[in-house]
Write a structure and sequence with these properties.
The chain has six helices and six strands. By secondary structure, it is of the alpha/beta class. The protein has one domain: P-loop containing nucleotide triphosphate hydrolases (Rossmann fold, 3-Layer(aba) Sandwich), CATH 3.40.50. A six-stranded mixed beta sheet has the order 2-3-1-4-5-6, sandwiched between helices. It is globular, with a radius of gyration of 17 Å. The structure holds guanosine-5'-triphosphate and magnesium ion.
């Protein structure tokens, strides 16, 4: 007998100030490579990652949004319906860390989730390979992640450290949050 083809499909956004390494993290994860030259993302880049978990396949649509101020209105159009957010700052540029609460606020306004689903996300301190240039400590990053109820990662698109973990967490937390929210709802 032919098995029906089923996959759960979720949407994650990767957002944060310009030049922090969002596209580089996606490129590292999906293509396994790193580019030193900076090419700003104009608007949004869309890609897809698939995960084969023992419970079934998850398809994660990854929306990589350009961080430049000029794209603010355009970004907003991609927020709605997201299940997960990867918020990125640059550990070697303090201003990008200080901007994160503002990004978070804009996101929560823009993502109009159904009432039974709440937003899952992670906070990523990128460029941890540049050990001589850190402007934000791990403790500060963890504190902010706790405050926003997000999981904290220290990563490098250059070396690849923790990059797979970010995307695997995105896929698995989408599933877990949605399953547990639906279960809670059915009990009521
Ligand atoms: N050393 C180091 N450089 C990085 C890392 N990640 C990104 N970069 C560099 O940082 C610059 C910006 O990277 P992008 O991935 O284009 O940044 P972005 O956040 O997508 O920028 P926008 O699209 O403008 O929002 C590039 O020159 C990258 O090579 C990293 O982990 N380590
Ligand atoms: Mg980009």
């Amino acid at each position: 007998m032919v098995q029906p083809l089923t996959a759960e499909v979720y949407k994650t956004l990767i957002v944060g100030p310009r030049n922090v390494g969002k596209s580089s993290l996606v490129r590292r994860y999906l293509l396994g490579r790193f580019e030193t030259t900076y090419t700003a993302t104009v608007g949004a880049d869309l890609s897809v990652a698939t995960f084969d978990f023992p419970e079934g396949t998850i398809v994660l649509s990854v929306v990589d949004l350009g961080g430049q101020q000029t794209f603010a209105a355009l970004r907003n159009r991609f927020y709605q319906g997201a299940h997960h957010v990867i918020l990125v700052y640059d550990k070697t540029d303090r201003s990008t860390f200080e901007d994160i609460p503002k990004w978070y606020e804009t996101l929560t306004e823009g993502i109009r989730m159904p009432s039974y689903i709440f937003l899952a996300g992670s906070l990523v301190a990128n460029k941890v390979d540049m050990t001589d240039a850190f402007e934000v400590t791990e403790e500060e990053g963890r504190q902010l992640a706790d405050l926003l109820s997000m999981k904290y990662f220290e990563a490098s698109a250059k070396t690849g450290v923790n990059v797979a973990e970010i995307f695997i967490h995105a896929a698995s937390s989408c599933r877990l949050r949605i399953k547990s929210n639906l279960a809670e709802k059915s009990i009521v």
